[in-house]
């Protein structure tokens, strides 16, 4: 019985190791053996604008000027946000930004720092 995870692309159980990579012989998909384990059924994976998986406590930087709704403040490009918390909903990052306060961000507008 193989202890290797199934292919994340086609779910084939016939994966094999090739150095530090895992390979699927059916769809030729390759991925890192040290990659984060696949999420449990129903668990949501939140990724940043580049495709990096985000976790609670990560530090991210904003990739686009964001207007703060209901005020004249703007979150500028390159603003670092420390210690994020992931949550459900359209705005899936809960954080506190220096000079602005607590707010929620969309993961598509941040990049893992």
Automatic annotation (TrEMBL):
Keywords: Hydrolase. Residues 46-113 form the Protein YjdM C-terminal domain. The keyword S-adenosyl-L-methionine does not apply. Pfam families: YjdM (PF03831), Zn_Ribbon_YjdM (PF08274). One of its GO terms (molecular function) is hydrolase activity. SUPFAM superfamilies: Prokaryotic SH3-related domain, Zinc beta-ribbon. It comes from the Bacteria. InterPro entries: YjdM, YjdM_C, YjdM_N. The keyword Lyase does not apply. Coiled coil: none annotated. Residues 3-32 form the Protein YjdM N-terminal domain. NCBIfam families: phnA. Belongs to the YjdM family. PANTHER family: PROTEIN YJDM, PROTEIN YJDM-RELATED. This is Protein YjdM. It comes from Azotobacter beijerinckii. The lineage of its organism: Bacteria, Pseudomonadati, Pseudomonadota, Gammaproteobacteria, Pseudomonadales.
């Amino acid at each position: 019985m193989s202890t290797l995870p199934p292919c994340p692309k086609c779910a084939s159980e016939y994966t094999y190791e090739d150095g530090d990579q895992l390979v699927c012989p059916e769809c030729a998909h390759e991925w890192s053996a040290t990659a984060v384990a696949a999420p449990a059924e129903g668990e949501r994976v939140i990724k940043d604008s580049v495709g990096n998986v985000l976790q609670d406590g990560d530090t991210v930087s904003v990739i686009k000027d964001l207007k703060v709704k209901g005020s004249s403040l703007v979150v500028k490009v390159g603003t670092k946000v420390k210690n994020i918390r992931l949550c459900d909903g359209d705005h899936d990052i809960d954080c506190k930004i220096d000079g602005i306060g607590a707010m929620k961000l969309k993961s598509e507008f941040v990049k893992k720092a």
